[in-house]
Amino acid sequence: MNSARLHAASELPYVRRTTATTEELLAGAFEALLEAGGLEARDVDGLGVASFTLKPDRCIDMAWRLGLNIRWSLDDGHGGASGVNMLRHAIAAIECGHARHIALLAGDVFGPDDFKELAANYNGTTRQYLAPLGIANPNTLFALLTQRHMRKHGLERADYGALAVGQRNWASANPNAVYRSPLSLEDYLAAPRVADPLCIYDCVPVVAGANAILLSHVSALPAGSPAIRIKAIDCNYNFDDQSGDGLTTGLRVISDRLFANAGVRREELDLVSVYDDYPVMALVQLEDLGIVAPGELRSFLNDRVLAGRFPLNTSGGQLSAGQAGAAGGLHGLTEAALQLLGRAGERQLSKADRALVSGYGMVEYRYGMCANAAILERAQ
């Protein structure tokens, strides 16, 4: 990872409805990425794409639409883990000399029936076993998981609300977020329930949007361009063969190794972006990564997250910014990159030198099978 540098990121404003196509949004994110990175389309010789609604097109079709002649391509279908997964492969490609400039794109546009069709036919297991039970919907599965998490840690709904409210406070400074209006803990507790104990603020809003990041070989960076070094990256898939309780992910296996390889201590992180399709999974990841110590979830949520004393998901996360399909897997990386490059606008942290980004997702039967994380550092 000594040769690859992340030096640009872009995100189109997330919207609830649009007449644009998935291809158009991905192209828009790519165009903004080139401008941010100081490159021309002809410079890009590697492309990775994550999308649920680009079908029947794939990465190579997108390359043609963008007019790219590439030496490296990647189609990624890992959902919430796609961003870190693509990043890992792109780093390897640059290290091996397979490409000099790689653009990674992710995005989706869901029509009225697209998301329902995706949820009901997410994979063969969902179609065969879950749909007949009437629970081919992630809200039901993660409501059950939240109940289990509440019992295990002695938490109440207000504790999960602290995360939702804390992230909404960050979203208020993000012009790309769908939900920016103030949200109080009282608002959260009074909100309509979706699947007990989840309310509408516990479930990511489905939106349209696209994200992109740009990696280049260190010797090919535009002159004077700020850049980010990937200090460490690790993944663990099919952690428990779907036989565990869902309250632990593969991040627990890789956590200590990740920090050791990065040469970074947890307290040296300036911001953390964890995949937040539901508050419970954000908390599980924070525990698995060792960022929150056992027995300290309640104090962490109320004394640090709600009080704005811990930079968690500074974009507002998907809970407030929205989940643009596969773009959700790249959302955290985009935000971390913008912060480390000093391009986060009104929400820019005064100190943003090191960040951790995690990915999670791809529910097979009961829980997500994929977990990965990367530690990023502003290059001096």
From TrEMBL:
Residues 244-363 form the Thiolase C-terminal domain. It comes from the Bacteria. This is Thiolase family protein. InterPro entries: Thiolase (IPR002155), Thiolase-like (IPR016039), Thiolase_C_2 (IPR055140). Pfam families: Thiolase_C_1 (PF22691). It comes from Pigmentiphaga daeguensis.
